[in-house]
Structures are given as C-alpha cells and as structure tokens.
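User: Here's a structure from my thesis project, written as structure tokens. My advisor, Dr. K., wants to see whether a designed sequence matches the one we expressed. Can you design one independently, without my sequence as a hint?
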C-alpha cells in the first residue's frame, strides 16, 4: 500500500509538471504567432531604431539561451544576420526615421564589425540619420558609431582608441608543475596552435604573422573611421598613441573623434529635435527584432539562393556536456548540404563560413560533400570573422570565395597534439602500469608511457599525409600548383585583404555581395533568399541544453576574455588527434 501511494503521488506530480510545461509552451507559442502576425505594425510611427552596442556580436540571432533572455533585460547578444536584415528594412520603412546607437563595451571579430558597419553606412545612404551616444566607447563600439551624423560623449566618459594587441597565454609552466607534457606533431612553420602548450613565448614566425594581420586589420579600421570622421589615417594613428585611452573627455572633441559632450538627457533631446517633437510628444523607440520581423523586401519567387550558415569549430561529433558552443559537425552538415543539393527550387548556395577549423577528418568529409553540391549548382563562400585552417579547407573548392578585408583566413596546415601524463600518473599519483600484448603496436597510445620512436614516426607521417591532402585540395580548388600553395601555406594566417593578393580568395565583399555573385552564376534575375539550417524552437534549447547553457554562462562571466583559451584547454583531450585549426586563439584586444 505504501509503494502504491508513493508511485501514485509521483505520477500525479509528473502529470502536473508536464501540464505546466506544455501550458507555458502553448502560451508563448500563441504569443509568438500573434507577434509575428502583427510584426509589420509593431514598429511605431515616427520611431527611432535603438541599437545597444553591448555584449557581443554573433553570426545568427537567437544564440542566447531562453533563460538568459528572461533573466536579463539588457540585450547582450546581437545576431549579425538579424541586425543586417533590420537595417535594410529600416531604410525602407517610413515608420523608422533614424537610428540611435548606444555605445558601450562591445566585443566582436573585426570582420563582423566591418560587415555591420557597412550595413549602417548603407542605411545612411537612404537619406536617414544616425545619432550615437556613449558613456564610454570600446574600440569596437566606436568603430561602429563613427558612421553617425552626430557622435556624443558623456562629459566623464572616454573612447578606447589605443590600437590593437594580441596577448596569447602559455600553459607550459603549469603543465610542467602537474607533470603533463604535450607530444606535438605538425606541418607548417607558422602552425603555432601547439605553442601555448610547449613554449613560454611566441616563436619568431608566429610573432611575424600576428604583427602582419594586426597591422592589416588596424589599418582597415583606421581607414574606415577616417573617412567617416573627416580625419587622416596618420592623425588617427597619432591619436592612438597620445589620447587612446583614459584621457579627458574634452580631448576627444578637440581631436574631432567626437562632436560634443552630452549627458543621456541631452542625447534624447537631440533625437527629439531631429524628429521635430513637441513638449508633449513621446519619444518612441523600436528594436532590431521588431524591425527585422517586418514584411520581407521583394516578392517571393520559386527560384532560391540558399544561404547556409556554417560557424563554430569543425567537429566529428556534436559537443556534449558543458561544451555548448555552436559547431560544424560532420553528419548534420552533410545531411543539410545533401538536402540543398536535392532541392530543385535551390538554384545556388552561399555557404557562410565563420570557423577557426577543427578536425581534419571532418573537414575532408564536408569538403567532399561541397564538391558534390558544386557539381549540380553554383557554390559561393562568404567568409565571416574567420575561415581559417579547416574553415579554409571546406571553402577552397567553391566556385568563388568572398571575404571581408579583415577576415582571418588561410592557416593551411595540420597538427596533432596528444598529452603525455606519464609523470603525473606515475610520479605524482604513484600509479604503475603493466601490459600484455599480441603485437608490436597493440598498446599504441598506452597511458603509462609516452610514444616510442616508431609510434611517433607513424603519427608524424599521418600528419604529413594530411598536409599533402589539404594543400592538394587547395591547389585543385584555386587552380594553383601545389608547390605554389605550399609557399603561402605553412599554417600562416592572412587577412582577407592579404589573401586576395596571393590568390586564396577571389573578391572582397560581404554576404550580400556573395549572394549576388551566386545568383549571377546561376543566371537568376529574380530570386528568393532562403536561410539554413532553420533555427531550433526556443523550447528545444530549453529542454535539451539549459543546464549546459547555464554553466557555460557562469564560466564566461567568471573567466571573461580568458574563456576562449580555457575552452581550448578543456577540449584538448576530446579533440580528434589530427587538427586543421587556427594556429592559436587570436585573443585580439
């Protein structure tokens, strides 16, 4: 009887909890449908599109967890796809009169910033205005806000314009203390992904490439700001040395980096004047989400150019546990590309690549599927923040490759990195190992010892073969001799601007440019743009990933700028032993 009551009570509680969950899902789903139906009218008349430049910019909207959205009123994630869509619609929406940019502490890759900035410039070209205000501007926020017709700074604020730096972290000393050393196998002078685990400082080759791409990125940013602010690049570079950070607010106005000093109330009054509002009229704001949800631009037709988003590390399998970062996984990506290949309405495909690379094996499988797709319809690559190593591997066989000037790409090289914890296990923990085996290499990869000479030679040969295959794929895709590819490979990272000069990309431009190029290759005059894969419903993420998202969020909050490096360290043991990956965490600041 006691067990009967216990199980009955458990069943009743389960039914109640399930009912509550599905009731919440139903309410939110209905609310979402109602919101989408009224999206075109959700933008108030005579309104201002407010964009808070706070947090980070990600490739696609909706990457924040559902609980994060409920727990915080501040938008900490800006989806680049949604923002660009909203800017296009805002330029043609009579209800939106202008844009108000709120400067803050914003983080994003230089190429993503560059693409968003281009969207803001195109909005201005429609004849509408942009006003920017900030208590403080990070370099990324200022780069975007510099397009504004009027740039306001708090009288106690500052602008970070101190140049760029990369500060990699080295773990060699820590590993030595705990009795672990990395067994490294690589091809490429510049393939420095292993350096944080075997060196205590940057190698000369790595220092050379980092200096090169930082200079290229910084020059592009200065050129863009100089054009908007009516300053010379040389002047901006000199200001970076003199008043780059922690200067009196008035010096930024005197140097013409800002137009005037103002408090938040003054900024809102400036908006009211531009809207010609009376004393009793309300200042109305709208959001990126509301504007992007408005009516699509243009008529829908059957012919479609598909935009497929491939971003994150390239992995053989989906990440598990607390590794909740978006990734490019073999099975899911191949399945998606096969669907696009078989869809008769899809006439061309643009693959948006934003990846530091990852598993060399997975990269090869995805490359092969892209070749099958290209055999039936045009394939164009649009490179985002980075398309390096494995990210370049999957890109190299397309009909055309487009990149932003500040995209990080190239890094054509292979490495293997396998921890040897012998000292930790035997000397520090006191473990001993023995073995019985049937063949010479039956205990290959045994935990109780490092690789012997024969085993190490086999691994290095495998890495060498991977490098030959990678450079061969690039040579075929880019119509270059393999020796010519090797001359610019060696794991070296290039910016899109540099890659154009050496033949690794075809043209400089954004995602829109790539879409137009794909339509031209498919000989389409009218077409619809489809975006793939379809985003997961919010409740799927809630049910499947919330624990990981919460823990991931806490780690991000505690570690800050060191989070990316930490994430690499904790994944080392789970990685495919042979990697085609960006040679280091850029750690640009």
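Assistant: Designed independently from the structure alone:
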């Amino acid at each position: 009887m006691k067990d009967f009551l216990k199980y009955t009570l458990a069943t009743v509680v389960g039914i109640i909890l399930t009912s509550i969950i599905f009731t919440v899902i139903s309410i939110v789903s209905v609310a979402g449908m109602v919101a989408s139906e009224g999206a075109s009218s959700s933008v108030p008349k005579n309104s201002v599109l407010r964009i808070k430049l706070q947090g980070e910019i990600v490739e696609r909207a909706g990457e924040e967890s559902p609980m994060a959205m409920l727990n915080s009123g501040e938008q900490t994630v800006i989806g680049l796809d949604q923002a660009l869509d909203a800017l296009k619609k805002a330029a043609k929406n009579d209800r939106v009169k202008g844009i108000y940019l709120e400067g803050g502490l914003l983080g994003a890759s230089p190429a993503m910033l560059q693409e968003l900035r281009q969207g803001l410039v195109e909005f201005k070209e429609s004849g509408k205005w942009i006003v920017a205000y900030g208590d403080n501007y990070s370099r990324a926020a200022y780069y975007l806000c510099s397009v504004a017709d009027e740039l306001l700074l708090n009288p106690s604020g500052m602008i970070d314009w101190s140049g760029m730096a990369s500060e990699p972290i080295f773990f060699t000393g820590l590993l030595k203390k705990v009795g672990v050393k990395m067994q490294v196998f690589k091809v490429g002078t510049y393939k420095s992904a292993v350096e944080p685990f075997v060196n205590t400082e940057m190698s000369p080759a790595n220092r050379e490439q980092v200096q090169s791409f930082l200079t290229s990125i910084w020059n592009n940013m200065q050129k863009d700001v100089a054009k908007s602010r009516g300053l010379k690049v040389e002047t901006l570079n000199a200001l970076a040395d003199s008043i780059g950070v922690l200067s009196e607010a008035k010096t930024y106005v005197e140097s013409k980096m800002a137009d005037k000093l103002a408090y938040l109330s003054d900024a809102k009054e400036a908006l009211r004047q531009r809207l010609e509002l009376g004393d009793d009229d309300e200042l109305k704001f709208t959001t990126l989400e509301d504007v992007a949800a408005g009516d699509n631009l243009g008529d829908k037709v059957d012919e479609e150019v598909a935009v497929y988003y491939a971003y994150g590390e390239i992995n053989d399998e989906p990440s598990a546990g607390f590794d909740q970062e978006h990734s490019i996984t073999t099975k899911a990506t191949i399945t998606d590309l096969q669907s696009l290949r078989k869809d008769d309405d899809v006439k061309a495909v643009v693959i948006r690549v934003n990846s530091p690379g990852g598993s060399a094996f997975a990269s090869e499988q995805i490359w092969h599927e892209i070749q099958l797709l290209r055999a039936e319809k045009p394939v164009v690559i649009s490179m985002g923040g980075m398309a390096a190593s494995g990210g370049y591997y999957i890109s190299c066989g397309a009909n055309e490759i487009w990149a932003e000037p500040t995209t990080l790409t190239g890094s054509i090289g292979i490495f293997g990195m396998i921890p040897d914890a012998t000292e930790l296990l035997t000397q520090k923990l006191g473990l001993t190992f023995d073995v019985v085996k049937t063949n010479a290499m039956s205990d290959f990869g045994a935990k109780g010892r490092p690789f012997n000479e024969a085993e190490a030679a086999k691994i290095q040969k495998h890495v060498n073969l991977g490098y030959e295959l990678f450079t061969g794929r690039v040579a075929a895709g880019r119509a270059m001799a393999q020796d010519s590819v090797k001359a610019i490979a060696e794991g070296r990272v290039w910016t899109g601007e540099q890659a154009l000069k050496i033949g690794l990309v075809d043209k400089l431009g954004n995602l829109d440019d790539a879409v137009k190029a794909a339509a031209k290759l498919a000989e389409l005059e009218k077409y619809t743009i489809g975006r793939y894969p379809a985003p997961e419903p919010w409740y799927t993420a809630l049910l499947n990933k919330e624990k990981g998202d919460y823990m991931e969020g806490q780690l991000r909050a505690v570690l800050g700028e060191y989070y990316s490096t930490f994430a690499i360290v904790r994944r080392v043991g789970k990685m495919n032993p042979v990697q085609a990956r960006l040679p280091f965490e850029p750690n640009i600041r």
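When you compare it with your expressed construct, this may help: Residues 84 and 119 are 6 Å apart (CA to CA).
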